[in-house]
Amino acid sequence: MRSGSIHRRQFTVGVMATSAIAALAGNQNSHAHARSARLRLAGIGVGGMGGSDLASLSSHPNVDVVALCDVDSNHLASAGEKHPQAKRFTDFRKMLDAMADSIDAVHVSTPDHTHAAATMSAMNCGKHVYCQKPLTHDVYEARQLRLVAEKNSLVTQMGTQVHSTSPYRTAVQLVQSGIIGKVRETHSWSNKTWGYDGPDPEPSAVPASLDWDLWLGTAPARPFSEGHFHPANWRRWYDFGCGTMGDMAIHILDPVFSALQLGAPKRILSSSSPPPKASFGMKNHTRYSFASASPFTTSDFVLTWSDGGMMADVSEWPRQMRDGKQVELPDQGSIFLGEKGAILLPHVAMPILLPEEKFQEMKVEAQPNGNHYHLFVDACLGGTPTTAHFGYAGPLTEAVLLGTLANRFPHQELEWQPEPMRFSNHDLAQSLLRRTYRQGFEVTHLS
Hints:
Elements: H1 19-25, E1 39-44, H2 49-58, E2 63-69, H3 73-82, E3 87-89, H4 92-99, E4 105-108, H5 112-124, E5 128-132, H6 139-151, E6 156-159, H7 166-176, E7 183-190, H8 212-216, H9 243-252, H10 254-260, E8 265-270, E9 284-290, E10 297-307, E11 333-338, E12 342-346, E13 352-354, H11 372-380, H12 390-406, E14 414-417, E15 422-423, H13 427-431
Parallel strand pairs: 1-2, 1-4, 2-3, 4-5, 5-6, 7-10
Antiparallel strand pairs: 7-11, 8-9, 8-14, 9-10, 11-12, 12-13, 14-15
Helix pairs in contact: 5-6, 6-12, 7-10, 9-12
């Protein structure tokens, strides 16, 4: 897949500080502040991706890591070696109780089912939050995090790091430039298969390093089973993860929603394979329609998501290159089909205008990379507002999670009413918008 710019006759897409990008920031965190010129950071979940997040955030010269929390003592010890001055905890609730006056911001990098509980607990203490994607496990949680963050003027950022990269920023500018006209449909896809269709997991001994009860947290109690949950396969299960859509659609649909300024979907229809009883299906195809057009879409615009090898019909896509061959589709990406052409956006590489011959004299000016982590820190210290704040990330997460729900009911079109937050035609899907937290793990504004 080529990732270079198309060039010859000058065609400028604009610079990063345009109103299109600024509009994503809104004023959700325009009153950001910190207690000092330095940011005192606590990490909740510091192994795996959490360790990577901690390293990236703490690489900012004005960050002091003051607390670490993880339910796995091995992860905690490893992070503690890198940040020996930080106090260590296994329960984030105890950390927040003990250090509320010593923390300015928190990053949350736990399995999906704990995202909202940890994030809301931190926001209830007035802390700014960087939370990994998908923002939440449930639709209701995403709505509540957005509302509380906005009410309390907190700085927030969802951990969709590619949101701030040059390819995705360039794609947003390119679509909004109007070079392909209004967009009539988009298709996005991933080859991943986050699901499980095998025998029930067999109980096994809990590793000595793991506090299994705290790992379960808000989720229903169940026995530990080696190889199925902690540390790597929790995404497959309804109780803990959000499947392939939660893992990859939250990334890949991000530039689609931001470029097209999409609102909430009106109808969602899945033609996926039937899912297992406790785990996500591994082959999904999901279609979204919307109540009204945005400034960048036609009135009949539709969006589709595919994963696990299911794919839309690509035969009519304008994929011609200058050499007469068709561009090879990436394993993961999106295509914007407009009135005047198309934009192919691999995950993660520069966008390509198609058919290439039509646009061969156009030059696409790449937008600069941004450090997604440092942008959050800077915003906490009073700088430019973030663009993946919960005011944007909450509705995006809601849309993605509506798709995961539709995939549980193949060939049953769900009709969505965003303001009352209800499905008007499906009581069972409605009951899955919000979990009941396990006793002892309730959280104010969520339970």
